[in-house]
Amino acid sequence: MDLLNAIIVLLNYTVIPALTYGSQLALGAIFVTLIYGILRFANFATGDMMSFGTMFAVLLTYYFQSLGISFGILPTALLTIPFAIFMMILYMLTIDKFVFSYYRIKKSPPVQLAMVSVGVMFVTQAIIRIIIGPSDRRFLDGEKFILKATEFKEMFGFNEGLTIKSTQVLTIVVTVMVVSIMFWFLNKTKTGTSMRAYSDNEDLALLSGIDPKKVVLITWVIAGVLATIGGILYGLDKSYRPFVYFNNMLPIFAAAIVGGIGNPYGAFLGGYVIAFAEIFLTYAYKRFFIYLLPESLEPNSMIQLLSTDYKFAISFSILVIVLLFRPSGIFEGKKL
Amino acid sequence: MKQYSNVIAAYSIMVILIILVGIFQSWSIALTILNYCLISAVMTMGANIQWGYAGLINFGIMGYTALGGLAVVLVSVAPVEEAWKVGGLNMMICIVVIVAMVVSIKYTLKKVHKSKKRNYLIAGIIVVGLLLLRFISAPAIESIESVEPAKTGFLGGLGMPVLFSWLVGGLFAGGLAYIIGKIALGLRADYLAIATLLIAEIVVSIIKHEEWLARGVKNVIGLKRPAPYEIDLQTSPWFINLVEKIHSSKLKLINSVSEKQDVLNQLVIDASSIYVKLCFAGMFLTVVIILLIVTQKALYSPWGRKMRAIRDNEVAASAMGKNVVKEHLLIFILGSAVVGIAGAMMVTNDGLFTPGSYRPMRYTFVIWVMVIVGGTGNNFGAILGGFFVWFLWVQAAPIALFFINILTAHLPETNEIKIHLINSAPYFRFLLIGIGLLLIMRYRPRGILPEKIIKQ
Predict the structure, then answer these.
(1) pTM of this structure
(2) What is the ipTM for the molecules in this complex?
(3) Set of chain B residues whose Cβ sits within 8 Å of the Cβ of A40
């Protein structure tokens, strides 16, 4: 019984939040890695692009709510996803046409493209702040909890409760769905194969008749889908705040590099590596050990490896360690 | 002379802009902008040494700036005796432990052959060392932080003159750059950018959360100043006489004595703040000029040519027997040290150290825009970029407000769009900077004042 209680404590405070956070990071990391693998630059506007898509979801959610449209127990924001994705892709293609394509055709070095993406970051941030402002917004409606701690305790008779928020389940389910569709697309369809070919060797791909314009277009479309859904899921689970989205760019980059940049599978797993490391290293294990150890050995400190202030620093330290020992990432990405 | 004509033209425009701010807004604002322009110029020069001379992309500028600021606190604040008494010894032991860790890791790396055993040994040393550090420091940190937490709660500094801290700031930043360079310099350019950005975040989060060191997010206020204080100036007779002399013609027009005294008091208060800012401007200008002379000399020396050769063709340079790795590390350290000096200057100017304010937007990306806009590889360009972009950054909101008012003049005051736009005027600075950067990258990729190669 004590063992089960201990496991529930761990599940409740570490595993489920880490899975949720990891899924959100994973979507962003695949976005980064796709752009890096196919368009060949580090996109510093990542966080703000995710924020841009989410902004439309937030605005549309408010609009739908004012019209009285709702999605039952599910959040209304889910209904807005297609519209938000559409706006996001439109924005990305516009940016690509007026900004990135010039450098791509000129075959500029990746650093220059990265600097250009910094410019895009500034502009996107400005547009977002001018349209919706910098403040914190919650746009979650519908049922908040799937399982409440008290209900769980009554049902199974444990001392510890297990809380499952609907956003947590939603995040994990949607992520798994989106990512499996994307992997199916990349591996099984002809367009997906041509994209991988383009990423592996651009010259050979062009030689075998792959249309670069189409590859770029599809890449931005997939990127738009990933960025918008990732952003909306994060916003539903926590809240929508432009500054936080900008900051999220950093752990997302860490996840992409840890997984091996240019490698979508690596990026997917990298997101979970970062999330689990962040949460497991900053969780205070006191309650966990109270159940496991006999009373005489019970801990009197928090048994916290690092204070929660260092959450971000942990993911970056993992990145540094990976860069030191396996510069191409845990799951072998592109060679540096 | 002809080759400098566009440099002179660009700088004259900049000076005119600042003078216009002085005339239309106030001289105090103009001088504040000038001081920050000078600080930005130093930062930009540091980044330009790395990017312009050697092609190294360093997005970690925020970290060096913060470290320079930390140096000011550690050097100039008076030591907190009580904190040293309760926790000083343990902290000293911690430093010894860290040194012992580093030495023993170096020793294992040297003496034990590359194998799994060596990896385990190093991992063991690190784990034992960290546990030991935690064990020794935890009680000390608690007792240090409980010494008058509202006022001190940290170890304090050395109580030395604040100007000395600028040098120390440079040293700190250089030391950090050595460590980062050893870790990350082998990476491809855009990887290096991400890695340095993330490492800088780690540095800032340590400064933010280790409160025993510099109070963390509780901020350190009332730092020493190398310039006189306004209050002292307002009570010293020579200063009042000086102000009276300057404004004598204006004061003569006033007849009543009490009114004259009031006007004079107001003038003295204004003048004292301008005097202090002028003092700072003088000091910053000295730093900028010294750095400009040194970097200019370096750029056109054999060493500078070597750096450019490495930047333009690494393989060829290393075939000629130049040690690319060593030179990259050296220039990484030098550039970062300059940024560290700028960070120390900034904290000195503000008189307070606020670790919470170090954010990548303001201290990395804006500085990079300055480098790109000003002109990579050209020191005059870098300084101009620092001036120009900072000026835009500060003045963007008033400019945006001006245009919004013109464009929406026909709308009534209660129009929602108009109100919304006016409220979001501060965010137009991002738009202005972003579009500026994109335009420069597209149509003038080498910056306003591009690099000039003088052939001898």
Answers:
(1) 0.90
(2) 0.89
(3) none
